[in-house]
Recover the amino acids of this structure.
């Protein structure tokens, strides 16, 4: 690993442990995610500490994926760490996409405020299952866009849109006659109306996850990313790194849960000895250590693939499945080790369990990734038959 990444990761870890973790009991932690006032306060501290948006260099270039991994893992040591350091979803993935495909004008208007930590963003893709809209299969997209003079007019309904409430930058996916399209939108916009903020199992993302109506949204033609019909190809650029950065952040959170459970098991006595000395407990912590190390190595392997310039579609699917399942086992065992304390809000272990459970759904559920990998296996087998 490079010296620059190691140095940045060390500063980030010190910042999260010393300055962010004390905020985990803050009164501004809402049911649908931390309030923006809290996020702003944390980002001000990160800016002062020199760890705001640490994965993007001053010249706008990104660290490699392998370098990014060791830094994002450290931001994940607290549920508030990614927000404080500006490495959280969906902003981190949106910054990556805009940095890759945005025009100079688009970057100045939409990307720069995100990098500076002055704005949040939302990615409007998923649609309600009740009406047959797009979820894991984006080809089912029902939101439409049509060209009207020098504007595109967009209509549709989106669901589970993370951070839509309070976001200032939106990336909206819609379908034209040529195919999928992406548009950059200033938020809030009266044509994008929140129907509700959905109650979900997780609570770490500002603004929660909203269902919104998009009614006659007019977007200037120069705010389309690329050309009409290129939306799916741009989604592929964002997809694999975004999957992997989820793995990075939640590995940090699972690592912290293991630290808390270990401390509990070593201090708590029952039946004449510390809990850790009971095989049933000690073995759970040992299994966690194995899962954490395997997750770390899986992330590093996939990051190395992405650093070659490959889209890494299959590799990121494998990493997402392996890491999300492993970290869920870790979080579940931590709850079990800590008993009643584990299911309470006295520590962040129960939140880690909730957040990581949702991770197994976000960016594609395990079953969709396995199905995709199975198709790849079949394709490669057929190719080998000549």
């Amino acid at each position: 690993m490079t010296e620059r990444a190691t140095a940045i990761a060390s500063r980030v870890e010190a910042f999260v442990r010393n300055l962010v973790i004390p905020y985990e009991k803050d009164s501004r932690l809402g049911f649908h995610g931390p309030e923006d006032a809290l996020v702003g306060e944390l980002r001000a501290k990160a800016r002062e500490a020199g760890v705001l948006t640490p994965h993007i260099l001053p010249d706008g270039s990104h660290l490699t994926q392998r370098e990014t991994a060791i830094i994002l893992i450290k931001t994940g040591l607290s549920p508030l760490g990614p927000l404080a350091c500006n490495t959280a979803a969906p902003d981190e993935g949106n910054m990556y996409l805009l940095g890759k495909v945005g025009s100079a004008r688009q970057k100045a208007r939409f990307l720069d405020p995100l990098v500076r930590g002055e704005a949040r963003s939302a990615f409007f893709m998923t649609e309600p299952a009740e009406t047959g809209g797009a979820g894991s299969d984006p080809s089912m997209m029902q939101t439409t866009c049509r060209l009207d003079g020098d504007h595109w007019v967009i209509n549709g309904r989106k669901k589970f849109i993370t951070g839509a409430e309070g976001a200032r930058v939106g990336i909206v996916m819609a379908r034209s006659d040529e195919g999928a399209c992406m548009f950059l939108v200033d938020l809030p916009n009266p044509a994008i109306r929140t129907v509700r903020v959905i109650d979900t199992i997780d609570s770490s993302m500002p603004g929660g996850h909203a269902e919104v109506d998009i009614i006659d949204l007019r977007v200037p033609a120069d705010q389309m990313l690329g050309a009409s019909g290129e939306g799916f190809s741009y989604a592929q650029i964002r997809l694999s790194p975004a999957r992997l950065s989820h793995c990075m952040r939640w590995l940090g959170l699972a690592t912290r849960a293991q630290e808390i459970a270990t401390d509990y098991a070593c201090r708590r006595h029952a039946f004449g000895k510390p809990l850790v000395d009971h095989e049933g407990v000690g073995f759970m912590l040992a299994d966690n250590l194995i899962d954490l190390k395997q997750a770390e190595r899986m992330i590093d392997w996939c990051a190395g693939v992405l650093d070659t310039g490959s889209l890494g579609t299959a590799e990121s699917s494998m990493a997402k499945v392996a890491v999300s399942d492993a970290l869920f086992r870790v979080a579940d065992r931590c709850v079990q080790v800590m008993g009643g304390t584990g299911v309470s809000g006295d520590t962040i272990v129960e939140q880690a369990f909730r957040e990581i459970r949702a991770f197994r759904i976000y960016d594609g559920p395990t079953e969709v990734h396995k199905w995709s990998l199975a198709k790849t296996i079949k394709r490669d087998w057929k190719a080998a038959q000549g």
